[in-house]
Amino acid sequence: MWPNTFFLLKVIFILNVNAILVLDPLVSNNALDVSLYENVLDSEECARQLTYIVNDDTMLLMQFLDSGVRTPRGILGGNLRDMGNYFQCLGIKKEVEEMSIEGKYCVVEVPLRQDEIELPSLPILPEIPQIPWPNITWPPMNFSQNVILDDNQLNGLKLFTRGRNNLNILLGDNPEQSLLRVAEDSPISHARLELALCLPKVCSPKNVVQAVTPNAIGNLKLEESFCRLSNDKPWVAADTVAVVIFSLIGLLIILSTGYDVRHSVILEKDPKQANTLYTSFSVYTNSRKFFTFRPNPNALHCLDGVRSIAMLWVILGHSFSTQMSFVPANPLEMVEFMTSFTSLWLTSATITVDTFFMISGLLLVYTTASKLSHMSLIKNLHLFYLNRLLRMFPILATAILMQASFQNRMTDGPYWFIVAWSTNNCRQYWWSTLLYVQNLLNPPTMCLGHAWYLAIDMQLYILSPIVLFWVLGRSKKSAWTALTAALMIVVTASTIYNFLNDFQSSPVSLSRTPEDSVRYMRNYYIFTLPRAAPFFVGMLFGYAIHSCNGKATRLSKPLVALLWTLAGATSTVICISTYYTIQPDWDNQTVDSILNSIMRPAWAASIAWLTFACAKGYGGPINWILSLHIFKILGRLSYAMYIIHYPLVYIINATTIAPIHFSVEYSFHRFMINFTVTVIVSYLVTIFIDLPCTRLIGMVLGGKKDKKINDEKKNDEIRKNDDVEPAIDITNLKKPQIENNQNGIRH
């Protein structure tokens, strides 16, 4: 046993080390204390501790070995990762002979192809005396020749690594760092062993390999991915700010709820007589309001179902896809599933974001066309924008502050650095997220990477008055011309843009290089122009639904059947196309460019027709299903669910202590956990923060009527022509209302 144990110990250490730092040591508010890892290194103390561990404390030696390197289990199935025992390693602590021996957990990557990879080495630390190990006969080793995988395994690993890299970029990983990890010049350069080491905290891998033996393993190259120490999460200003703000909110909730309960329950007074300001943060009142649904004849009830199902699809897709970031124990089976026809419901899930863009544009026109004239919109444009910004702010700011502080401290795990990297981004670039420009200014380091959707949605909302000016309070001919022209301009511009840039047509494309994926993500997937068409499709259908309000809409049965068939066939073809474009042998740039140009507006048109049909009595059982009461609850939570679910999924995944066997059944179990936790947390955030802030915003913006605006309203000419909609008071826009959603995922 001893020779094999020590042989494994020596195999994983390194003569040339290339450290890939996830965090910037020059930044003072890092999520993990990078300087701590450097400050604890002491080569002389390392030699003393290693000498003691090897010669005098066999049990302590076994703790280090037991917590560290092993041969990855399931290597024939593509698993090249062993995660050791994270918590056992960091739990090692022993005081002896004026030494404090503590464990340090490190993860290193060993490329299987050693002879074709040149890695820069770190400066060599001062050499330490070689430790006299037990007399062991070391077997000869040629790493690149002894590690043999067949062609199917190599191809599968290559596809998995490429898909993982593309998904990491999609899900918010650092593109530059991802590119460093995938070289294309070698047939197996993509394949790397990821091994966990447990060392004394004063040692580095360089120290240990010098102490063990300088020549036993030849010129084995290895990349040091990261190291972790206990208590390596420093307290920073963001933590203090979070404690103060959330403590203040908690105090307001206690006081407000106490006042409300005393007034309405103990004294049994009319709740309407309670002070509105005092009950703003009341859990009792806000919970009642949340579960109270006022009848609204103009509400598009089916949109609650559309929004809820789209949100379920997003969470389901992220529950599956984020597993690739943490590498399952059977990646070859995962690749086989991803490239199979049966995975279409998952691989095509990214199209669902265009559903939200469509809903946002539809509700923008539908809820304003009967309220504003073109002149009142221009005169009160600041209120038009302010209302939207304030409605989006509470939950988004809460999620940013949580990610920058508490979520980094919730728990821990061997791959917590992914959460720490997101925390760093929020500490550095929180402002670009709140200004909705992070997809343009700092795409590689976005705070809440999935919030790129909100940035594009807000940018389109800011541009929308250019079209709304010709829609509100004008003739139908003017409105239809403006909406159609805007859609055609956007589609034409994005088509030209797509054909000039030759993008791939799927976020995960196994036939493309990582460089192509980075370019696709930055310049297409999170860029405003190529994602704008669904928003304008929604605006057009929103005006169509508005124009038919109060009027009998008569469509022939053959026409309705034809439109349903076209919508169903279009959405089906779009989903099926993902199966072909994700394949490793796909190579048709023309089709990619065509898909990038038309599939998103086509999908939006299909969902928009569904909404129109349900609103006008042509939905049948589909309308009944989408209008179920349960979807109203999820619809009200949808915005919070979108913002909150993604960080929670990563927190749950980052606590994984061993590679997990991928299966559809297990992934559904993870989805149910992610969904349940997301709903609970979203409800609490909505009740504790969003609804109170919404009530306060309503009091501030809607508490006083602007006499000047009312006078202007009275002086507006209300034409009697049926083609013109009357203008109404802009103050209706000031009151944030749950019933009038102006965002695809905002309640």
The Rg value, from CA coordinates, equals: 29 Å
* Number of helices in the DSSP assignment: 32
Identify low-pLDDT runs.
1-22, 116-129, 133-148, 169-173, 175-189, 704-742
Domain count: 3
User: Based on helices, strands and strand pairing, what is the structural class?
Assistant: mainly alpha
Give the overall silhouette. Answer: globular
Mean pLDDT reading: 80
Strand content: 5-15%
Helix content bin: 55-70%
Oligomer: single chain
Protein name: Nose resistant-to-fluoxetine protein N-terminal domain-containing protein
InterPro entries: Acyl_transf_3_dom, Nose-resist-to-fluoxetine_N, O2_lipid_transport_reg
Keywords: Membrane, Signal, Transmembrane, Transmembrane helix
Domain Nose resistant-to-fluoxetine protein N-terminal: 43-229
